[in-house]
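Go through this pair.

…
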Amino acid sequence: ASCVQHRLVVRDASSLQLLQLYTCLDQIQYIEWSSDSLFILCALYKRGIVQVWSLEQPAWHCRIDEGSAGLVASCWSPDGRHILNTTEFHLRITVWSLCTKSVSYIKYPKACQQGVVFTKDGRYMAVAERRDCKDFISIFVCSNWQLLRHFDTETQDLSGIEWAPNGCVLAAWDTCLEYKVLLYSLDGRLLSSFRAYEWPLGVKSVAWSPSSQFLAIGSFDEKVRILNHVTWKKITELDHPATVASKKTIVYKEVEKSPTVDTERLSFPPTRELASSLFSTQSKYDISQVPVSLQYVKPVADRANPKVGVGMLAFSADNCFLATKNDNIPNAVWIWDIRKLKLSVVLEQLCTIQCFQWDPCQPRLAVCTGTSRVYLWSPAGCMVVQVPGEGDFQIVSLSWHSSGDSMVLLSKDNFCVCYLEREEV
C-alpha cells in the first residue's frame, strides 16, 4: 500500500498490479496494515481523523473522529480489530473497537521515544505513563483491555520500553542524561538494574535478540554492551574504534569505478540507455588490508543531539549476527559474530548510512546510503546493486517482505520493489 496526497493505492506485492484505489478526506500522513492484512488504517493528523478501509469489502469504510482532542499517533492492536489513537498533548489513548464499536480510554500516556509496545504474541500491551511528575508502566490484557499491573519505575525521565520477543521481560531505559536500564517481569517485579557509568550521556539505542537471550545496549560512549538473560549481567563490550586492526576482521570498502561502454555500440546521438550508462557512476567492494582507518567525524559538543555513540542496532533473524552503526563513523556498518562475540565484518561506504535491515528469513543484511544503490551482505560475501531507472533515485529507507524474497526501496517521493531470486537447492 502507498499513498499519494489523499489517495490510498493498494497493489499486488508480486506483480505490482493495481488492486484498489481509495480516496480519503484529506492528505494521508500515516498508513498501517492490520495484522491479518484485511484492513488498512489511514491517519489524517491535521484533521484528527482516522479512516479505515477493507480489502474484502471495498464499499465498507470506517471513520474515527477525535474531534477537539486532536490526534498525534494511531496504530493497530495485534488482533487487527482495535485502533489505538493518541490525542494531542498525550492526554489519553483511545481504544476503538471495529467489532463492538465500544471505546476504552487509557489516561496519562507519556510522550517518549517508545511508549506503547505489544508482546510478540499479541497478548499484552505495556504503556509508559507520567503522573504527578513520576514515571509509571501499566500492563494491559489485549483481549479485554483490562489493567493487569501498574507500577512505578526507578527512572527520572523514562525514555522508552521494549518487550523481549518471548514476552516474559520488559526493558525500560532512562533519559540519555542518566544511564539506567531496568528489567521487569510480567507481574511488575524488578528483575535487574544495569548502569555502565554515571555522569556522561547514557543509553542511545536498545535491541533484543530474537531468542530473548541477549539485550544489546548502544551508548553515547561508542560502545555496545550485551546483557545475558540468566543473570542480566554484562557479558561483553563491543568497541567501535576509528582504526580496525584485527586481522580476523574483513573490511569491505566501497570504491567507485568508471563505467565500461562497448565502443561498437557508440552512436550519435546516443540512445537513452547508452547515455545513462555513460554518465552514471558505478561502485564495487574491495577488500582492504588491515589496519584500516575509517572516516571519523568529531561531534559538535555545544549542540543538542550530538552525532556521537551507537544509534542503530539490529540482530539477524538466526541470532548469529549483530549489525551496528556508530554515529561518529557515519559511513561504516559493523557486523559482529554473536557466537564468538567478535567483530566479523566492517562495511565502509562512500556515503552516510541511512538505514539497514536484516532479511527476516536468513542472515542477509540490506544497507542504503541515500544513493541509487542498495548493498547486500551475507556470510558468503557482499555486493552492490544499482537500481535501474531514470533520474536520481535516492534510497533513504528500505523494508524486507516477510518472505525475504523482495524488499521495498523508498526515496523521498518514489518507491520501487527489488525482487531477489532464491537459489535452487
